[in-house]
Description:
Layout lengths: L1 H56 L6 H16 L3 H22 L3 H5 L1 H36 L3 H7 L25
Helix pairs in contact: 1-2, 1-5, 2-3
Amino acid sequence: MAGLIVAGIVALLLILTIGLYNGLVRERNGVQNAWNQIDVQLKRRHDLIPNLVETAKGYVKHEREVLEGVTVARNQAVNAHSRSGQIQAEAQLGSALANLFAVAEAYPQLRANENFLKLQEELTSTENKIAFARQYYNDSVMTFNNKRQEFPGVLVAGLFNFKEEPYWKLPDVEQREAPQVSFN
Length: 184
């Protein structure tokens, strides 16, 4: 009789462990899927930027530093290898693009250029898609990290080496401020 009770407890613990493990795998895969959705939009963004910079070059000749900043930030974002590195590089790219658009405001010919307007509209649309994908990613990360940190999931997560996933957030306060542009 005691052997049957022990076998029942072991079976129950095994079923609980399997259920928790499978739940963690599902949530981790959800995080990966959410990241892949961001990656698709970032690729689109990265493809649009060189065309935008080339279009702007003819008009903003005196703003070479801004154009180079966008190009450098884009290259860093494309070449980032880790999730946290890519999150930081994309924040820098967003800031560089904001500077470019702020500078473009001072050039009426550029703002009137059909190619520039079309690229700016495409980029704005892409930025909106990235924002929605980031929100979905962060929601997925929260669900996974909660499941990973709650008891008894924390035991299974530790046993099977499920690591905490990073949130997509702005790395520092400067990223939250609007760029200041002055032509004085």
